[in-house]
Design a protein that fits this description.
The complex is a heterodimer of chains A (about 80) and B (about 300).
Chain A lengths: L2 E6 L4 E14 L2 E5 L6 E5 L2 E7 L4 E7 L1 E6 L2 E5 L2 E3 L1
Parallel strand pairs in A: 1-8
Antiparallel strand pairs in A: 1-2, 2-3, 2-5, 4-7, 5-6, 6-9, 7-8
Chain B lengths: L2 H58 L15 E7 L9 H18 L3 E7 L1 H9 L6 E3 L8 H16 L11 E9 L5 E9 L19 E3 L2 H83 L1
Parallel strand pairs in B: 1-2, 1-4, 2-3
Antiparallel strand pairs in B: 4-5
Helix pairs in contact in B: 1-5, 4-5
Classes of the chains: A mainly beta (about 80), B alpha/beta (about 300).
Amino acid sequence: MTLNVELVSPTERVWSGKASFVSARTVEGDLGILSDHAPLFGVLVDGAVSIKGIDGSTTEFTVSGGFISVSNNRVSILTETVSK
Amino acid sequence: MGAQLRVYRRRMRSVKATKKITKAMELISASRIVKAQQRVSASTPYANELTRAVSAVASFSSTNHPLTTSSENPIRAAILIISADRGMAGAYSNNAIKEGEQLAALLKERGLATTSYLVGRKAANYYRFRNRTVAGAWSGFSDNPTYEDAKQVANALIEAFIADAQVDPAGVDEIHIVFTEFKSMLTQNAMAKRMLPLEVVESDTPAPTGLLPMYEFEPNAEVVLNALLPRYIEARVFNAMLQSAASEHAARRRAMKSATDNADDLIKSLTRLANAARQAEITQEISEIVGGADALASASAGSE
């Protein structure tokens, strides 16, 4: 099973595709998501989000605040500003 | 050259110069619509995800957040009107302003006072001319709004909403937005929508497939909602601004196209008039020459 990941900012869709692992930092601490994760909605703090694609490559983004929502193997990360 | 002909030629020159300007504006707007449309569609995924998240949090958590519950006796409502900075766009700004007036009348019927927040110079001028008080006005970005601009406007609205309207004259209980929806190149609609409080529809019917799972909130629903709602308002305002910008360009393109067509018609009829004047001049000159020659001939015939 893979995750369908979308990383979106107000002005563009930054990353979208299939991934095997996503990690992000919420206000409660670091969070790793594998497939079949329980539905979750979290508030992100400024920090790194990394997405490991199904081809094994890892992409890192720096986000400033935002949200992460996980449901039915669908991960969406909403943030105001992103940089690679 | 006769006086009449000169006047026609002068008018033709002036119409031609105007036509060049309107044609250029038409082309500029036409190229900007596409860009504006792309920006609308680029902002859509974010807005959609946020809307999904807000409805999920609001309908599945039991928190009574001030942003989702309506006041028991609302006394004041804010209206945000998004108009253009520049004219030359036909009735675009007027339609939005009129829609705002209708909404204000509707709210007045419900016994609510209204405060106005204006985006765009046109709306600000309209209100200033009528000596109305304005709670906030922004301008200078109507044709190319950035997220920062939307944030500024949204922050002012949220601040007014959080203030208690019962005691604070700056506070409001409801926020409405008036913008121009971009349906297609040919259709744009001025419309009014209520942004806050949110209309969370609670239905007993089971949710359609794959919709709104039971979320775990991290750290908890209240904090999530607190963080989520300002972003939601910002995204809504931003989306409305982008749609309005696209509509503005489309309206301007249409207005400039009809101005160019009109200039073409004018040039055509002026050319006809100028030709007729020139021909009349020539005819007159010929008849004068013929008349003169006749007079000379008869005079010399008389002397012999």
